[in-house]
Design goal:
Strand order of the largest sheet of chain A: 1-2-5-4-3
Radius of gyration of chain B: 23 Å
Shape of chain B: globular
Largest interface: A-B, 37 and 42 residues
Helix content of chain B: 40-55%
Number of strands of chain A: 7
Strand order of the largest sheet of chain B: 1-2-3
Radius of gyration of chain A: 17 Å
Oligomer: heterodimer
Distance between the termini of chain A: 53 Å
CATH topology of chain A: Beta Polymerase, domain 2
CATH class of chain A: Alpha Beta
Helix content of chain A: 10-25%
Number of domains of chain B: 1
CATH architecture of chain B: Orthogonal Bundle
Order of helices and strands of chain B: HEEEHHHHHEEHHHHHHHHEEEHHHH
Structural class of chain A: alpha/beta
Number of helices of chain B: 18
């Protein structure tokens, strides 16, 4: 971890230790595990105080139906000023796949969150327009879940 | 009006959409200026655009799902089909994500060839953008001149990889094969002709009064909004943000090349047009430097368990044959972990999020397509513009639906 990133993480931890439950390093990247309920506060702090003004990517992943918590949502932050990257990760259980939206912080989160909802079924509370985006609106299930078969359940009809 | 017509108008609700109120127009998915299968729900007040709702997904083929069922080396061919105007960029992002997980060291010659091919591909991608953008606005002849240049680059790519649109040239740990004999000579030939072609484009388009009046002040987005909407690449630099991942998060040795990052402060269609035109000259400079640096050397990393051996070695060495069999039949295991690998593709930041669980197939591959994010900012740019300008704005975003829908 570079000194600059270390500084960001320390500052975040000192402000509220409950915001970061774990710091994982690997392949030159830093991942902060953030509890689901504080993701909005952490994101706002990172954007306003630490200059991570560009949400490069937001994507979900399914760890498999036998895992608990099953889903994860990754926020890849980037700064156009100091060019550092940071990943925030939120873990969600299958019974309650809800997390607060970050669209009020970065407008770009809008489509990323819709995609994650569409393909994985993670629900972003407070999202202004949480509809399916890639799949048709009457599609059944969430295609990127591990227990969804590669070829679907039955021949899908466009009618 | 006869009662029959009145009844029909009543039932279809056309009477409610008189000229005083707003009307909804569905543009696409087969409209030629939507660059593929994009549908826009336009809410219009006369000719003024009140609201735009993009509707995507017509080209969705579930590629991210498919990655999870393919071995790492099989995934490369899927990436070709995403941004089909910049397939080498997709290849590069994907293989570099896997190489980051594997901690592979790529030899110098392979790095130089990667830079060389990617910059050629960037010029080819910008040629398609310029041709179709001009075609949308009404300048038809530019298209033919652009595609002539693109054709030359595709021929170069074909001679190296065997594929024009789907090269799959970069492999995990290096390249598919070395450059063919005579590649440098043919590339130099192209390089000798290209400045003249750029002059043609500049005279055809840049000084054109109609072109200026169609692009200047159209589709404005401010610097703050551009960052907020996550724009990257030429769209962001067209709003005055000096950001280029080749310089700011360097990869494949881009930090050792000498090039400028063009920016324009205006944030309109004209600014994005100027940025891309100037980028062609910068790519040209990088290709020149890469050609000078081509020295003989290995093109594959020294990792026999990951990289396919040479055919010649397989005939002579038993262990090469065994490695070849194992890689093809079972694949290679990638240590558990997750990486996010961003590169500067021709359209912006192309990021690959790759997660491995230790097996020969990835657990999750996510592509952050620059077109996907740039298109999401279309409503912010088009509100308050005329309906004809929406076409110009889509052209200036340089979207490819294969990457948006994946």
């Amino acid at each position: 971890m570079t000194e600059k990133l270390q500084e960001f993480v320390e500052k975040l931890k000192s402000l509220n230790p409950a915001w970061v439950t774990d710091v994982i390093e690997g392949h030159g990247e830093v991942t902060l595990m953030v509890p689901g309920e504080s993701i909005v506060d952490v994101c706002r702090f990172m954007k306003v105080e630490q200059g991570f003004d560009l949400l490069a990517d937001l994507c979900g992943a399914d760890r498999g139906p036998e895992e608990d918590p099953r889903f994860e949502v990754n926020y890849h932050l980037f700064s156009t000023k100091h060019h550092n990257r940071l990943r925030l990760k939120v873990l969600l259980s299958e019974d309650d796949p809800h997390v607060m939206t970050v669209t009020q912080i970065w407008k770009t989160a809008n489509w990323h969150e819709r995609e994650t909802y569409d393909l994985l079924g993670v629900i972003f509370d407070g999202h202004p327009d949480l509809r399916r985006i890639l799949l048709p609106s009457d599609f059944d299930g969430h295609a990127l879940r591990k227990d969804y078969p590669l070829r679907g359940y039955e021949p899908y009809s466009l009618n | 009006m006869s009662t029959v017509v009145e009844n029909i108008l009543d039932q279809t609700g056309v009477l409610d959409q008189s000229l005083e109120s707003q009307m909804t127009l569905s543009m696409g998915p087969q409209h030629p200026s939507t660059h593929g299968v994009l549908r826009l729900d336009l809410k219009l007040d006369g000719e003024l655009v009140v609201n735009v709702i993009p509707d995507i997904g017509y080209l969705h083929t579930g590629m991210e799902k498919l990655f999870e069922y393919k071995k790492y080396q099989q995934g490369i061919v899927i990436t070709d089909r995403m941004d089909y105007l910049n397939p080498l960029g997709n290849n590069l992002a994907y293989v570099m994500a896997a190489e980051k997980l594997l901690d592979l060291e790529i030899p110098e010659r392979a790095q130089v060839i990667r830079v060389l091919m990617c910059e050629l591909q960037r010029i080819a991608s910008h040629m398609v953008w310029l041709g179709t953008h001009a075609l949308d606005i009404g300048a038809m002849s530019v298209f033919f001149y652009c595609f002539r240049q693109r054709e030359k680059i595709l021929n170069l790519i074909e001679s190296a990889s065997g594929g024009r649109m789907t090269p799959s040239y970069f492999r995990i740990g290096g390249l598919m094969m070395d450059l063919p004999a005579g590649f440098e000579r043919r590339c130099n030939q192209f390089m000798a002709d290209f400045p003249e072609a750029m002059n043609t484009f500049e005279t055809l388009v840049t000084g054109n009064t109609i072109w200026m009046s169609r692009t200047k002040g159209v589709g404005y987005i401010s610097t703050e909004d551009a960052i907020d909407w996550g724009l990257t690449g030429p769209c962001l630099r067209g709003s005055g943000v000096d950001l280029d991942l080749r310089r700011d998060n360097p990869y494949t040795g881009y930090e050792t090349y000498d090039f400028d990052v063009p920016t324009e402060p205006d944030g309109d269609v004209w600014a994005r047009f100027r940025v891309r035109m100037r980028e062609c000259y910068e790519s040209y400079k990088i290709v020149r430097q890469a050609l000078d640096r081509l020295k003989p050397g290995p093109i594959k990393a020294d990792a026999p368990k990951v990289v396919l051996p040479d055919r010649d070695d397989m005939r002579k060495h038993m262990d090469s044959l065994i490695h070849h069999f194992l890689i093809v039949a079972e694949g290679f295991n990638v240590p558990p972990g997750e990486v996010y690998m961003p590169i500067e593709a021709s359209k912006g930041e192309l990021g690959v999020y790759m997660k491995s669980n230790g097996g020969p197939k990835p657990e999750r591959v996510h592509f952050r397509g620059p077109s996907f994010v740039n298109l999401s900012a279309l409503p912010a740019m088009s509100e308050g513009e005329m309906i004809a300008d929406v076409v110009a704005i889509i052209g200036s975003l340089d979207i490819v639906l294969g990457e948006i829908d994946r």
